[in-house]
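Researcher: We're teaching a course module on how sequence relates to structure. For the next exercise, students receive a sequence and then see the predicted structure as tokens, so they can try to spot secondary structure elements on their own. Here is the exercise chain.
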Amino acid sequence: MKMLRRWVSFLGIAAALCGCAVNPVTGERELALVSESQEIAMGKQGAEQVQQTMALVEDPELQAYVDRLGQQLAAASERPELPWSFAVVDDPTPNAFALPGGPIFVTRGLLGLMDSEAELVTVIGHEIGHITARHSVAQMSRAQLAQLGLGVGMILVPEVRPLGDVAGLGLNLLMLKYGRDAERQADDLGFRYARTQGYDVSEMADVFAALQRAGELAGQSPIPNWMASHPAPQERIEAVEERLRNAPPDQFESTVGRSQFLGMLEGLAYGENPRNGFFRDDVFYHPDLRFRFAVPPEWQRQNLPRAVMGVSPAENAAFQFTLAPAPSAAEAMRAFASQQGLQVGPTSSDRINGLSAATAAFQAQAQQGVVAGYVAFYEQGDKVYQLVTYSPAEAFEGYRQTFQTMIDSFAPLTDPAILNVQPAEIGIARLPRSMNLVEFARWSESTIPLEELALINQVQNVEATIEADTLLKQVRGGVGKD
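Model: And here is the predicted structure for the students to work with:
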């Protein structure tokens, strides 16, 4: 017992020596095993990986607008000296996220859901609040302190340093889920930051109401859905109303900024962007990269930023399509075959639909048993693509022909209609006369369901009359889904 008490005491002293800091928001001392320089380093690498895996929206004016709003808020926060940055990610999921040390991202899906600059500012302020209050630092520090208690080796062995390579956390920072208290504090800070800049903070409640209605619009994304880790929307709406009741009256008219904000959304892509690839009639097309390949009917499939994946209905077979980091199909095959634990059969180096290709059967030992499949590499332009199909060895014969058909289907994309497809986009229309949303949907020839149109315009009653000259979002164009 003496030894145990001694180690517990030692752990407490070690934590105190390396981990006491003053919280910039509360002014209270708290555990912080991450220095500010480490915090900035983690955020910097995380931001680089975000831009490598999730493209930014190609609209310099919109990017500059969001960054300007964010910089104004951050400059008046408790940590103005951080290297703040604000950008819009090309993802249809309504979300926003902050990385330690300053980088903040908003998805175009969230922009399309909001209705004013005041709404956007309260969301950006919420994310700034996570950084100024060092929520990610506190979370990582608690995790590290728990690890310290697992064994004295974490302290005594020089090679095992607290946090290890802090910058190596990368995109794992995106998956941090703050506690509900941290989310409430970030809401409070976002409210305060926006109000200090003269914005109508009652708009904050409209964001939460829209997010609550947007669950089915979130779609598939590598970014966790905003609502998954936050307090219930109704609770947050009631908290906004409570803050408004307790806030001193404004001396000046508060800014909403609806016209300016909506003007920035003109031409913004809506929903999935087919230029990044899409499924139709059991075929995956990629207009920008100019290729296509067949997908087995009824398989679940997903198009991610760095891979196209699919799983059979019985969940005992799968495929994965990615870029291969190699100068040729043959070199890519050699690298694949050199992996430990793989047994690769003879390579067939043939042309598939006019493209140089290398294919082979393989087996691998997995935790659940032996996996068998085919791998194929294709050369197209300056890129090499990899298609891996696999199943448990005992199920392979039942999928052999399916896998072979997939591999043989990869081909250059030549259909002009597919090559020239464009995403649906948001337009801003001024009502020529009074009408309700049902009439507006017909008048604007909306290409999305009425329920979605009501959602993105934050209209509760589609039969209610909307005054002439009101600005509303419309959605034009787009591509049909598989």
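Model: If you want an answer key for the exercise: The two ends are 65 Å apart (CA to CA). The chain has three domains: 18-256, 275-419, 423-476.
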